[in-house]
Known about the structure:
This protein is of the alpha+beta class.
Amino acid sequence: MSKNKIAVFQEQEIRRHWDDREEKWYFSVVDVIALLTDSDNPQVYWRVLKKRLIDEGSSETVTKCNGLKMRAIDGKMRLTDIADTETMLRLIQSIPSPKAEPFKLWLAQVGYERLEETVDPEIAIDRAMLTYLKKGYSKNWINSATQFILALCERNSIPAFLFRRERRHTSFPPLFGREGGGELRSHGEG
Length: 190
């Protein structure tokens, strides 16, 4: 299996590479810049953006972009800068373009949600349950998975009471038992 793949976003190709050792995707920086800026020369845009980031004190972001030979438009293998997802999201924040705005709004929303989850971890549990439901998992499967998590907590001495508190601000049924009771349901119970 080839580790270099092409991702298509809004009918434009973005070269990417899967790193088995790190278990993450790396994306061609100039391909993403081309998509978001409509620049005639995304390589020059990237050079200017790198300089601006360094001048602003964000040299760490630039340092995380490494060179990798990838197939270019002319079919030859050419060295291009790549970045993992986290670094790529940071770069997108630095691109002043209307096309980058939806990504920036999404990043702000995700950041806000994670801050909420830090204050109230119950929100993360609710979000995970809704995500599994949207993906088509059954409530029984979700309940079994959460019971498995509880068993892991017990085995690793993580206090289970963290997962069995009363549900205050949600209409979704409690993840680990009845309202406020903290009792676990068996696999067959609904």
